[in-house]
Design brief:
Blueprint lengths: L1 H27 L4 E16 L5 E15 L21 H29 L1 E4 L11 H5 L6 E6 L6 E2 L3 H14 L3 E6 L7 E5 L11 H7 L9 E4 L4 H5 L6 E5 L2 E2 L3 H9 L2 E2 L2 E2 L2 E7 L2 E7 L2 E5 L2 E5 L2 E3 L5 E4 L3 H27 L11 H14 L1 H19 L7 H14 L5 H31 L3
Antiparallel strand pairs: 1-2, 3-18, 4-5, 4-6, 6-7, 8-17, 9-10, 9-13, 11-12, 13-14, 15-16
Helix pairs in contact: 1-2, 1-9, 2-8, 2-10, 2-11, 8-10, 9-10
Cofactor: Zn(2+)
Subcellular location: Membrane
Main location: membrane
Amino acid sequence: MTTLVAFLVALALLIAVHEWGHYRVARACGVKVLRFSIGFGRVIWRRVGRDGTEFTLSALPLGGYVRMLDERDGVVAPHEREQAFNQRPLRQRAAIVAAGPAANWVLAVLLFAMVAWLGSEVPKAVLGTPPAGSLAERAGVRAGDWVKAVSSDGQQWQDVESLPDLQGAIARAQALGESLHLSVSDAQGHARRSLRLETERLAGRAPDVQMLNEIGLAPLAEPLIRDVTPAGAAAAAGVMAGDRVLSIDGQTVPDAGFLRDAIRRARDGEQPRAMVWRVERAGQTVELNATPRIVEEGGQRIARLQVSVGSPPERVFVSHGVVDGLWRGVEQSWDMAVTTVRLMGKIVTGQASPKNLSGPLTIADYAGQSARAGLSPYLDFLAKISLSLAVLNLLPLPMLDGGHLMYHLFEGLSGRPVSEWWQRQLQRAGALILMLMMALALSNDVSRLAGWH
């Protein structure tokens, strides 16, 4: 129920803001608005405003529209002709079209700023031991490294305030097929050095658990056993929740990352390999013989003890003042918009996986997860979806606002509007492209939820 409510609230808010942008600029330009609708289909609520606009809520809440007086849609009374959309100057018509995406963009900036103003307690970007053979190990990451900044080119650096900041930068670099430079220090913030994470090696792949293991960046955590699966391999060996692993086969275990990697590597070919564990339990040292089980995961056979390991990572409270928070909102929205456009370009040219596209099922799932996590995560989710809606609507497809802006650009350059015949053909092509995009996004949603990729 939380997922459904969070998704519907997000849809209603973002659609209302988008259409409000069109409505307000249309009224400011003297255009008569006939209907402001949230949703399509059967009208379930209606109210008429003082300016004669009919405000409606319809049964299918998957979009909305602002219907304006326009001579192309029917006969317009002579005394209302000046209020028709098609009679307004070109610059006003373009402003009305652009106002919807602009409203979503402004909303995203404000929501990102609100997240920065409210602040939140998040994991610190201090890293644990990377798995053997991972990108992090090849880059030279060591347990206790504190990531202070990231860069795509090693020249212009962006500060990292928390682990989510770092994870977002990694996701962008991987999706765009670029390497990511890390500026790290020791736990006290000294001894800065630069590392290069070869995320371009993972270009064209959809994010999954296996890819996260290949990257190998995880927060520093104590090698504690949090939970033991009943009847699992660890339970059979006598491992108990709360155990602190001191050594494996005589080798000291410094952190949870080292422990996870040691478990994964406990195999000889297709056969599991027994390990000798020394654990601290209630102030006593206990020696155990633990043999993992070989399981199928992500198309690979790996060793698993069926335990959850690691203490909660160190957390920091991150917040910003009014000006800094607003500027952070501007920067975040711009960076995300540029990344989205570049990613879509790479998908079209085959340089990035189309599995990066998400549809309504994934959005609904994220809405529920963020709502359960708290106010700040939900506001951050709303900001990202609002910005995505702005960028999507600015694409030069005839069914979208960006397509209509292309019509106006043509009219401005040529001095004549796009012919009705061409508009019909372009509308058909745009509708087909949008349907294919929606089908692909929905297919990706189903594959993710079913665990197929």
